[in-house]
Design brief:
inorganic pyrophosphatase (n-terminal core), 2 domains, 11 helices, 6-stranded parallel β-sheet, alpha/beta, 6-stranded mixed β-sheet
Length: 340
């Protein structure tokens, strides 16, 4: 992937750099953020790596996790940095604990380079390395400013995790470059077994109990080929006497193992309720879904991005009203995209 001379010059000239990974936290943003920081430091840069959200415990086994600072980016003096690199996010609200893009502008620093691959990217940054055809931001980095040959085994492991995480272990959203890079990373020494075990197999009994409950409470709108389930964080943490991390694990299991796997269901919704906040996560069947999922949030008047078959958005309103609105939008989009 060709990077503009302007970006190359900015990276070369910048000495004091801040890398911010996106939220929600996943293998892609973590791997990219850590490797990017380490590669820039090898070039003599003064680099800090920050996450605006707490890192889930599931990622503790990954290398170099101690290099990430968890900071409230809204309160940081961001103007002191020559360059801010925002990693794996398509809008500004993913880089601070805020609900709207308008609530965060990198505290006035306009020297922002965004590296991303998501559909619906709002192109908020002065500089940009963006490829919506790439499987992951890890793939974008390896095709633009990083080289597999320059990585050590642990860094190769992290970027292999980026590919695995955003493709569901190569089940969706991949291309020829994805497999080529995965092969090169394994040849470099990437610990593929660690990544697979961490992402798919290292789950708790509580996570599976929550998964079972969510499956039991799933609603099937068979006429339109979609399902939805309401995941109430407060209710589930109290019911299973656990922290939010375990609830997130159960929801992740639902999204990974169930939401895309029901015959004749093209789209699956998870309505995540946390106090007064409501987030909607959407997954689509790779073979049969024809609706670009970011269009659903946009049709509801929400800021929405992601992938063709994986998207999400924040929305205001009571859950029951949101369900009615989703049904209305789905009828229209199914007609528009000739979804059966």
């Amino acid at each position: 992937m060709q990077v503009s001379e302007l970006i190359e010059k900015k990276l070369e000239e910048s000495r004091n750099i801040l890398v911010i990974i996106s939220r929600p936290i996943d293998n892609d943003c973590l791997g990219c953020g850590i490797v990017l920081k380490r590669q820039l430091k090898r070039k003599g840069k003064d680099v800090r790596l920050v996450s605006p959200s707490k890192i889930p415990e599931q990622f503790d086994v990954l290398p170099y996790m101690s290099e990430i600072e968890v900071k409230d980016t809204k309160k940081m003096d961001l103007l002191k940095f020559d360059l801010i690199i925002s990693v794996d996010g398509g809008n500004t609200k993913q880089f601070a604990e805020v609900s709207k893009d308008s609530d965060f502008n990198f505290n006035g620093n306009k020297e922002v380079l965004n590296i991303d691959h998501h559909m619906g990217n709002t192109h908020f940054a002065k500089y940009e390395i963006w490829d919506k055809e790439a499987s992951s931001t890890g793939e974008v980095l390896l095709l633009s400013i990083l080289a597999v040959d320059d990585l050590n085994k642990n860094e190769a492991t992290l970027l292999y995790g980026a590919l695995v995480g955003d493709t569901g272990n190569f089940r969706y959203n991949f291309n020829v470059n994805t497999f080529k890079l995965a092969t090169e990373l394994i040849a470099k020494g990437a610990n593929s077994k660690l990544i697979i075990n961490n992402y798919f197999y290292d789950n708790s009994d509580i996570g599976f109990k929550i998964l079972a409950e969510l499956i039991e409470e799933t609603f099937y709108i068979n006429k339109l080929g979609y399902t939805y389930v309401i995941a109430d964080y407060d209710k589930l943490t109290e019911e299973y006497d656990c922290d939010f991390g375990k609830v997130k694990e159960g929801i992740r299991l639902y999204e990974n193992y169930f939401s895309r796997a029901v015959k004749n269901i093209q789209i699956s919704f998870v309505l995540k309720k946390h106090g007064k906040n409501l987030t909607v996560a959407i997954k689509g069947n790779t073979l049969y879904n024809k609706v670009p999922l970011p269009e659903i949030g946009k049709s509801l008047g929400c800021e929405s991005g992601g992938h063709f078959n994986s998207s999400g958005f924040y929305i205001d309103g009571a859950v029951d009203n949101v369900i009615v609105d989703i049904n209305r939008v789905m009828k229209n989009l199914y007609k528009e995209y000739k979804q059966k």
